[in-house]
Amino acid sequence: MAARLFVLFAAIAAAMPSASMRERELKKRATTLIPDTCFSSQSTFESYFSYNYPWGDTHNGAALMKASQATIIHDAYLQLQSNYTGPQSGDSSLQYDSGTVYAKQHFTVEAGGGLDFQANFVAPVAEGCWPAFWLTAVEGWPPEIDLAEWKGTGKISFNTFNTSSEVAALDVTYPTPTTAWHTILVELRAGDDGSTVQAKFYMNGNLVTTQYGAKMVGAAFYLIIDYQMLGSSGSSGPTTTTYFDVQYLSVVSYNP
Ligand SMILES: *[C@@H]1O[C@H](CO)[C@@H](O)[C@H](O)[C@H]1NC(C)=O
Ligand SMILES: *[C@@H]1O[C@H](CO)[C@@H](O)[C@H](O)[C@H]1NC(C)=O
């Protein structure tokens, strides 16, 4: 009996490739969409990224985004700088000049494929500071995946939106925010149903959480590196200049 059961399980195992075997096959198709040298000069950076949001220079917060607030430092990393301005004359809800950039490419998890997004961050976590590294749908909304977001509580958030109310959201402790680079890696993989995307979120090499997004296979995303202020991070913020730094960003595709 035991032997026959073993044969049965072995047959099932052979028919369904293991997750690690599948991952190994997928990795053979690795294609770099954005290389980790993308911040090696202002011109290299500008060949992969555009300034502000895809839709303009404001979004759900108190910062007006300007190209001059996004700079490559030491030919090594991207710095988004937020300057406090006080209520601005054109729109008093705007109180900061800050920086946001988005990738020129759109990113899609194709059926049977996947994408990896990785970067190192020094992200401010004080109240009123709202840095984010996120994917949002090119057509409509959601889908949205917050690859990493900091909402002024000292924590880091990882979120996947099926709808505005159906959201997988996790906040975890974010140690030494201002003094150390933290590496975030998010692996997106197409599910067998041809619709669901699995997102595995890693911080400094450790898997933190796995979330599942509905109707995300085949959906095109914008990638945004955003230093917004106030909004979801609280109603009072710094009156000094603060910075969001990003280094060694890469995007790799395993799509067929
Ligand atoms: C923003 O703040 C920095 C640091 O205080 C300062 O050097 C820079 O001139 C400010 N930028 C603007 C546009 O005022
Ligand atoms: C979102 O949809 C996926 C796919 O149907 C499901 O697995 C996941 O649990 C949903 N997320 C939430 C927060 O309900």
TrEMBL record:
Signal among the record's keywords? Answer: yes
N-terminal signal peptide: 1-21
Q: Name the UniProt key words of this record, in alphabetical order.
A: Signal
GO terms of biological process kind: carbohydrate metabolic process
The GO terms this record gives for MF are:
hydrolase activity, hydrolyzing O-glycosyl compounds
Under InterPro entries, the record lists: Beta-glucanase-like, ConA-like_dom_sf
Q: Where is the GH16 domain?
A: 27-254
Task: List the protein's name.
Answer: GH16 domain-containing protein
